[in-house]
Amino acid sequence: MKEQQFQEKIDLEKKIEPKDWMPVDYRKHLIRQISQHAHSEIIGMQPEGNWISRAPSLRAKMILLAKVQDEAGHGLYLYSACETLGISREELVEQLQDGKAKYSSIFNYPTLSWADMGAVGWLVDGAAIVNQVSLQRTSYGPYSRGMVKICKEESFHQRQGYEIMADMANGTPQQKEMAQDALNRFWWPSIMMFGPQDSDSPRTGNAMKWKIKRQFNDELRQKFIDQTVGQAEVIGLTIPDPDLKWNEEKGHYDFGEMDWDEFWSVVNGNGPCNIQRLEHHKKAHSDGKWVREAAKDYSKKQKSTETN
Ligand code: 3HC
Predict the structure, then answer these.
(1) CB of 221 shorter than 6 A to ligand 1
(2) What pTM value is reported for the model?
């Protein structure tokens, strides 16, 4: 009976709120997805953070700083949304550090040149926008509202990345070469952000039934490719896919076969930077222990002065 009432609510496009009854599997699915989304935001700060001290100008440094700070805020919104499902921040961080929870595969690739800051903003945040705009309509209230706020900031992330790529593609031959090299290295890992093909996606059935997801992985991937090919052409860069071709009949680009072995190898922890990313997170987390303790003591003291 409760299951039926819940599904009717979903079908009527009503948002599910923290205090509402929900199936255990709906709660588990959301904790998995929102926590992995939050982990992605936080781990995603590392590849870009590496370049803050090496930005080529004060303006570039300020923009990158602002972007990386935004990602920390996105992580905060998403961890907070996840905590409304009855799991603590400590548990979530533990799952990440123990390798029980994943984060987006894209962040396990190294950022080797300044052009990579352009490729990450343009492609990674560009892909994230396609995914997250769709997620604004997710059925869980706190997640949906967090997405609306995050999407407002993502367009700045994508534009600043594209500006870096455009400047370099129109710069010296060496700069153009760096931009093309960054595109070559980030193109395929960026389209892998949309997840496995729907046929291989174990959870897509429930995700669509409960309107956690509103569009299929492959549909969102196709949308991102269709909108990005033209952007590369405008700045004179070549997408590293010889099979990429406009299909007039379908109204979409046909594209080459993805390397699913690479995808699953990176997702399962064997990418170029998986170990480094988690080690860095563990060190930063332990270095920040004193801040968390001081904040906890301060709020305890505040509470006791308020009650006296
Ligand atoms: N990277 C890492 N893990 C991935 C993955 C990817 N690209 N794609 C799939 N997986 C994992 C899933 O988490 C799942 O692992 P689990 O069983 O241990 O939980 C497993 O592979 C099977 O995949 P599924 O098909 O079941 O996964 P989904 O259908 O949930 O699709 C997803 C994966 C597209 C990532 C989906 O979970 C999703 O849309 N999540 C919300 C958005 C998100 O997390 N985006 C990540 C990037 S955030 C970002 O880029 C920040 C921006 O500011 C730059």
Answers:
(1) no
(2) 0.96
pLDDT of 304:
87
Is 111 near ligand 1, meaning CB less than 6 Å away? no
173-225 per-position pLDDT tens digit? 999 999 999 999 999 999 999 999 988 888 889 999 999 999 999 999 999 99
Is the pLDDT score of 145 beyond 90?
Answer: yes
- The atom number, within ligand 1, closest to the CA of 198 reads 25
Out of 30, 33, 106, 144, mutate this one to test ligand 1's pocket (max ligand atoms within 8 Å of CB): namely 33
| Ligand 1 atom 24 nearest Cα | 201
Q: Is the CB of 49 under 6 A from ligand 1?
A: no
Q: Three-state SS string across the chain, please?
A: CHHHHHHHHHHCCCCECCCCCCCHHHHHHHHHHHHHHHHHHHHCHHHHHCCHHHCCCHHHHHHHHHHHHHHHHHHHHHHHHHHCCCCCHHHHHHHHHCCCCCCCHHHHCCCCCHHHHHHHHHHHHHHHHHHHHHHCCCCEHHHHHHHHHHHHHHHHHHHHHHHHHHHHHCCCHHHHHHHHHHHHHHHHHHHHHHCCCHHHCCCHHHHHHCCCCCCCHHHHHHHHHHHHHHHHHHCCCCCCCCCCEEECCCCEEECCCCCHHHHHHHHHHHCCCHHHHHHHHHHHHHHCHHHHHHHHHHHHHHHHHHHC
Q: What is the pLDDT of residue 284?
A: 96
Residue 308 has pLDDT above 80, yes or no: no
pLDDT over 80 at 85, yes or no: yes
